[in-house]
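Researcher: Quick test of sequence recovery. Tokens follow.
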């Protein structure tokens, strides 16, 4: 059985913990029953010993598999990872979603995407990465009475993402601790109105509105001040054709959207100015998690 799951960029500026989008940058895993437990890793994280000895995918998979079957079996796991770890591209959500989906799929049990999403919520309490990881596309997601309520919109081929990935990892848990405990009424209104405008811009494909609607005052400035070069990344992106440019999730990646015909120019400008960072143009993903038996 093979399963693939996309990277995701959460928040999109003002939509803290509720907006997210899927990227065509994927983790894949092939799982086969085997006489012994074994793991092979290629790509991102392959030189990280923790991913061989204490892998979050395997522990979530084993828990779900045991709960479903009451059996303990051995498997061979072959991981091919494209999503960088702890860079704000939803690596943990990708692991959670694909581990749960695999435990069901390997037993031939069908699980609806909405159910998979709600099972994933137990491992990541904010739904802005797990929803696009499951569904693909742009997503607005809220937790209402312990259930994720969401709306998905496909992204057309006329748009591309350009990501700038610094070599410094940022843990989401630690990064959330740097945020203020309380916000003023003005800042709260600013973010609610911008997040609503941004959602409407995606839904109506009013791409020229993204630049204004993607402004945020609740999290980016507090996180970016620990890596001030990111302010320069944002300025350079907006000067070179980005329709919007925001911190991806909790960072450290910076995420921009451009018309496809402008994305190469944007990628080159960012590569030239930030040669020490990884810069890539990536298509959007409109499928979400995919399983092949
Ligand atoms: N391919 C992987 N295999 C196993 N565990 C992984 C993998 N990718 C990420 N993880 C786990 O997820 C942790 C990173 O989660 P974290 O929430 O800090 O970052 P992120 O999900 O990449 O960022 P964000 O939520 O801001 O998009 C890693 O420390 C590791 O424990
Ligand atoms: N909304 C989350 C995304 C990262 O998982 C945050 O900004 O902390």
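Model:
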């Amino acid at each position: 059985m093979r399963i693939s799951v996309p990277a995701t960029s959460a928040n999109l500026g003002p939509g803290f913990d509720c907006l997210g989008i899927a990227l065509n940058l994927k983790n894949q895993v092939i799982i086969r029953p085997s006489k012994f437990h074994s793991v092979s890793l290629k790509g991102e994280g392959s030189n990280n010993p923790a991913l061989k000895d204490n892998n979050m995918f395997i522990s979530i998979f084993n828990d779900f598999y045991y709960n479903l079957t009451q059996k303990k079996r051995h498997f061979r796991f072959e991981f091919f990872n494209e999503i960088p770890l702890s860079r704000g591209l939803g690596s943990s959500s990708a692991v959670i979603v694909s581990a749960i989906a695999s435990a069901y799929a390997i037993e031939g049990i069908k699980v609806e995407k909405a159910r998979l999403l709600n099972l994933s919520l137990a491992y990541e309490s904010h739904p802005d990465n797990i929803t696009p990881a499951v569904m693909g596309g742009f997503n607005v997601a809220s937790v209402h009475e312990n259930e994720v309520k969401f709306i998905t919109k496909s992204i057309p081929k006329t748009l591309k993402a350009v990501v700038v990935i610094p070599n410094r990892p940022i843990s989401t848990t630690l990064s959330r601790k740097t945020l203020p405990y309380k916000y003023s009424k003005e800042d709260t209104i600013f973010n609610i109105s911008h997040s609503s405008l941004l959602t409407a811009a995606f839904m109506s494909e009013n791409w020229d509105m993204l630049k204004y609607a993607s402004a945020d005052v609740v999290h980016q400035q507090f996180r970016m001040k620990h890596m001030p070069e990111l302010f320069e990344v944002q300025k350079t992106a907006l000067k070179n054709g980005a329709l919007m440019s925001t911190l991806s999730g909790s960072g450290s990646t910076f995420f921009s959207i451009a018309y496809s015909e402008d994305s190469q120019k944007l990628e080159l400008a960012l590569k030239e100015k930030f040669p020490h960072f990884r810069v890539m143009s990536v298509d959007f993903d409109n499928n979400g998690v995919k399983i092949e038996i």
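The chain has a mean pLDDT of 96.
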